[in-house]
Amino acid sequence: MNRSKSWALILIAVGFLICMHQIGMHFHVMGLLVPVAMVGLGYVGITHGKKMGWLIFGIGALILITKLSGFLAIVFAVWLMYYGYRLLKKQNDSAEFRL
Fold it and tell me: Name one Pfam family in it (predicted).
């Protein structure tokens, strides 16, 4: 796929999501579009040497982190369980060698 086809598909997908939101079918993605766009525009500004890019990137990242806080909490909880499992497994493996 070339660049124009990719851009067209992205625009169609965003338009579809906006229409579904207006109809009443919420995909919970609409609240993420603005912060993701801010992060993207901030990154473009940073790469072009604009100081305003850092501000836009930072605000977008903070909004995105607050929107994804529930998901991040779940990821952190799963990581804690995995880390605890690894510690138990490591403890059991070392106990087998102490006969």
Answer: LiaF-TM
pTM value is 0.56
- Residue 38 burial by Cβ neighbours in a 10 Å radius (0-12, 13-18, 19+): buried
Per-residue model confidence as pLDDT tens digits over 32-73: 888 999 999 999 999 999 999 999 999 999 999 898 888 888
- Please name the residue that has the structure tokens 């990719």: 6
Q: What is the DSSP string of 12-25?
A: HHHHHHHHHHHHT-
CA distance 88 to 85: 5
Residue found under tokens 């880390």: 83
Quote the CA–CA distance of 85 and 69 in Å, as a whole number. Answer: 24
